[in-house]
Amino acid sequence: MSASARELPPQQGGDARSEGIAYQSLLDRDTREVPDVLREVHCPELGSEDIPAALFTSQAVHDREMDRMWSRVWQMACREEEIPEVGDHVVYEIGHLSFIVVRTDAGYRAFYNSCLHRGRQLRDEGGSVSEFRCPFHGFTWHLDGTLKEIPCRWDFPHLNADNSRLPEVRVDTWGGFVFINMDAEAPPLHEYLGILPRHFERWPLEQTWKAVHVQKIVRANWKVVMEAFIESWHSVETHPQILPYTADSNSQYDWWGENISRTITAMGSPSPHLRDVAEQEIMTALARTSGRMSGSEEDESLKVPEGRSAREHMADVNRAEFGRLFGIDLGTASDAEVLDAILYSVFPNFIPWAGYNPNIVYRFRPNGSDCHSSIMDVMILMRFAEGAEKPDPVPVHRLGADDPWQDAPELGALGYIFDQDMGNLPYVQKGLMTSRKGAISLANYQEARLRHLHRTLDRYLAD
Ligand SMILES: [Fe+2]
Fold first, then answer.
1. CA distance 165 to 162
2. How far apart are CA 172 and CA 408, in angstroms?
3. How remote is the CA of residue 176 from the centroid of ligand 1, in Å?
């Protein structure tokens, strides 16, 4: 379903006043057939209200988010390939809460990570076990949460199998991810995900494996951090090196229902902030600094042939290179699908990228009970051929608040880009704390995904 022309911002409607080429016009020039889901434009009115700064800086808001929001939403806890065998589990933490997500012989289950005896966390970290045995006194549960053993059984006549099952939360899967939800009344995951499963039909994330996972503490509220990754227009000031090949201020933004939004930023097309960028200049900058393309500047394949655009040529390079990397034929993949930054988000904090790229995934969470600190996860998912064996996932590489992303060489050029973002975020948090205005004023279109996030968050907090 498309929004009416009346609702479109000027550049999306192809208005002559707009800056740069509209994303949909760029798709008209694609060398392959473009999938319908990229042709959807959906940007219903979200208003232009200010957002109170306290939403990012107040402990009371954090507490209410824990109480009213995090307790009721579907949250991505891990990848399925992280827990391939019975007994494999991860510890997923959200705020002050901790859960064990485990594979059993009857599917996945998730339990509150707390011994029913004296409350000690049953597991400090993930791993593989045949039972959950508390390290304090040895109370033990089966993988399905039923009681297995109480040491000094004679002293606990008041405990039995019925009143000593591990309390559990709902678990479901989509796209090779395992999600949990604490709320028994919440809609099923598939319903919660809205248009997302349909949009990803062409790029099934089940057919990927986690090749990179870096997690970092950031000294800013989780929403401050997340909101720097769901709009592209800060590139002009924060990431100027990417402008020759990034269509930043003419990105397309969409949102559907309460939970899903999307940014599409074209690559291999220069920023409207620049004038007269030569095709070879686009290509060279792309290869040098994007972090999502292969090859080096000296590579013959990075010379744009006479009469072709950098975008067309880079798409050819990527179709060949990613096809080889994934072991699949990308001959019919559109230029858009092998080049562009196509980021969806699922409320509140899960950001899977689409297309036939090494797909980035972001996740943003509060760091314990500190409303001024958060945990940012970056995964890179690699596609593998149908029928091929799924490679083992990498362990999580953890970075502290003072460690730069560039300490994780597996991120390639992305590390430098993320460090540019980190150059802002702790100072956004500090600035919000001292803000005399007490509010932020957002762009109506380019920051609409932030409005969409806050609109849904407001609904949970008000309930
Ligand atoms: Fe950024």
1. 6
2. 31
3. 27
What's the pLDDT score for residue 295?
Answer: 53
CA of 308 to the centre of ligand 1 (A): 29
Residues 281 and 416 reside in one and the same domain: yes
Looking at 190, 224, 247, the residue that finishes a domain is 190
Tokens encoding 217: 């503490």
What is the per-residue pLDDT across 92-116, written as a single tens digit (0 to 9) for each? 999 999 999 999 999 999 999 999 9
Task: Give the three-class secondary structure for 362.
Answer: strand
What separation in Å is there between the alpha carbon of 123 and the centre of ligand 1? 35
Please state the rounded mean pLDDT for residues 156-182. Answer: 98
Domain that holds residue 320: 5-52+203-462
Q: Is residue 262 one of the residues assigned to a domain? A: yes
414-422 helix and 425-434 helix, angle to the nearest 10 degrees: 20
Q: How far apart are alpha carbons 20 and 27 in whole angstroms?
A: 14
CA 419 to centroid of ligand 1, rounded, Å:
9
* 6 vs 242, higher pLDDT: 242
Strand pairing category for 88-94 and 127-128: antiparallel
Q: How far is the CA of 422 from the centre of ligand 1 (A)?
A: 9
Query: Is 239 in the same domain as 286?
Result: yes
- Give the separation between CA 199 and CA 178, rounded to whole angstroms: 19
Distance 233 CA to ligand 1 centre (A): 9
> Does the model's pTM come out above 0.85?
yes
Q: In angstroms, what is the span from residue 235 Cα to ligand 1's centroid?
A: 6
| Res 378: pLDDT | 98
Residue 10 has pLDDT above 70, yes or no: no
Reduced to 3 states, what is the DSSP secondary structure of residue 100?
A: strand
The CA 421 to ligand 1 mean position distance, Å, reads 5
**DSSP assignment string, 201-270:** TTS-GGGEEEEEEEEEEESS-HHHHHHTSS--TTHHHH-GGGGGGB--TT-EEEEETTTEEEEEE-BSS-
Q: Is 323 helix (H, G, I), strand (E, B) or coil?
A: helix
- Distance from Cα 447 to the centre of ligand 1, integer Å: 13
pLDDT at position 9 is 52
CA of 397 to the centre of ligand 1 (A): 21
CA of 239 to the centre of ligand 1 (A): 7
Q: Return the closest-CA partner of residue 362 out of 223, 192, 173, 194.
A: 223
The answer to whether residue 196 sits within a structural domain is no
| Same domain flag for 260 and 334 | yes
- Tell me, in angstroms, the distance from the centre of ligand 1 to residue 134's CA: 43
